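CATEGORY: protein folding

GOAL: derive structure tokens
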Amino acid sequence: MKCGCVGLPNVGKSTLFNALMKKQIADAQNYPFCTIEPNSGSVAINDSRLDELSKISQSKKIIPTTLECIDIAGLVKGASKGEGKGNAFLSHIRQVDLIIHVIRCFENENITHVENDIDPIRDINLIETELILADMEILERWKHKRNVVEYKKEFKIIDNTINLLNDGKYLYFEDISQENLIWLRQLGLITTRPMFFVANVDSDSSQNEHFLKVQQYALSKNISVVPVQAKFEAECIDFTDEEIEELAPNHARALNTILKTGYDILQLQTYFTSGEKETRAWTIKKGTLAPQAAGKIHTDFERGFISADVLSYDNFIKYRGWSEAKKAGKVHLAGRSYEVQNGDVMLFKFNV
């Protein structure tokens, strides 16, 4: 999963990025455009199931899935026209799977706000306007370079899309066919990408008036919103989950919460392969069939797919691996039409 963080300057994007990456990568300072070149990094996604599978298989190596993240400089009014080097910044998020819109919901007189006061709904609209304007520019440029007679179908799609953007619509949340959405995404339109809000709070979100406004706004737009104490998270980068629990009981770590939200939005799930050599997690879309899941490992696996032995994670643990599970009749043979389930442990058979 590859995500990109957007937002105004000084909302806590770089602080959140460091917390997600579990290390100090981005410089987080109290002035706009502290980030000029985008920061990027990846972090292993912690999944306790990997450890349990590895113990049973006595694996020499554990390979988790990873989260890749890009932290771009804060956008300002006029970014789509190049203000604050906005065009360059926007180009960095055209290829991500998911956009995290970070919104300032904390008061701190020592941290300046580019608009001079805290107003999260205004900030949301400002950022979304710049993303929409950037997309409109791409579409107008596309039309300018092509002949309407030759591209009659495409021009109709684009004109309809421009009308939506003119109305201030974020395309991903509009009633656009999946086929058209994918084609528009290939043109580099930012607003075709799934997006959710991260409200950067400094205390209990249930008592934070700024967060409550964001929550109400998000509900009206059917957008997910996650409250995160980015400063606290960044200060606890080196802490274990147990140590965090002692400091802040029932605190949900930002990485775990954001990952769950991202997986739900993108409809992702995990299957496993486990043996003496390695235990590994693989991320796939829900509804992926066995041959395509095999293709995540190697294209030859998909091309020469014959079948797969499948065992649920719970039964792998209960019967301590393949051998006893087979004796108990818990291993089933999956063909080309099998839809892989979250937590499946799989052993593929192929011939090329």
